[in-house]
Design brief:
Shape: globular
CATH superfamily: Nucleoside Triphosphate Pyrophosphohydrolase
CATH class: Alpha Beta
CATH architecture: Alpha-Beta Complex
Radius of gyration: 15 Å
CATH topology: Nucleoside Triphosphate Pyrophosphohydrolase
Number of strands: 9
Helix content: 25-40%
Distance between the termini: 33 Å
């Protein structure tokens, strides 16, 4: 069995384990994610080693960290993307698929610099900018929903 298949097989168990731990370590979880849009209206997506499909970059807000600081950190870590202007809050979403305590703040990022492409590592195995009409087939449901809200005027949902 390849490492990729092994990861996919155990992905749900690993995710549940992390969230079980977070349930006791944190009262609630909050994530800061970014929809990074380049000058050609393409969206930056990443592929994790531990979650199937393509997703918007982002992650958890650490204790003592603001949403915007967490966003800047996550974009740098996952995409080598540096904010050069103000990120605009698109919405805050309840992520019930992760836990009953998880919320995600999504920011729209148009002012940024990416001095070099990120190098794939143990967490982020692939990345790229994609036209909204040419998203990878396995782009996640929540990612597709947020893209539709931003680009197609679909009504904003409260659920991630």
């Amino acid at each position: 069995m390849t490492l990729h298949r092994l990861r996919r097989k155990f992905e749900p168990l690993i995710r549940r384990g992390f969230h079980f731990y977070w349930r006791f370590a944190r009262g609630a979880t909050l994530g800061a994610f970014g929809m990074v849009i380049d000058g050609q209206s393409r969206v930056f997506l990443i592929k994790h080693s531990y979650v199937a499909g393509w997703h918007l970059p982002g992650g958890g807000v650490e204790t003592g960290e603001t949403l915007r600081t967490a966003l800047a950190r996550e974009l740098m870590e996952e995409g080598n993307i540096r904010l050069t202007g103000e990120a605009v809050l698109h919405g805050v979403f309840f992520n019930h698929r992760v836990s009953r305590r998880d919320h995600v703040a999504l920011f729209i990022v148009r002012d940024f610099a990416q001095d070099a492409a990120p190098i794939p590592d143990h967490e982020i195995i692939d990345h790229g900018f994609f036209a909204i009409d040419a998203l990878p087939e396995d782009t996640g449901r929540a990612t597709r929903a947020r893209i539709a809200e931003v680009f197609s005027g679909v009504a904003l949902s409260e659920v991630w």
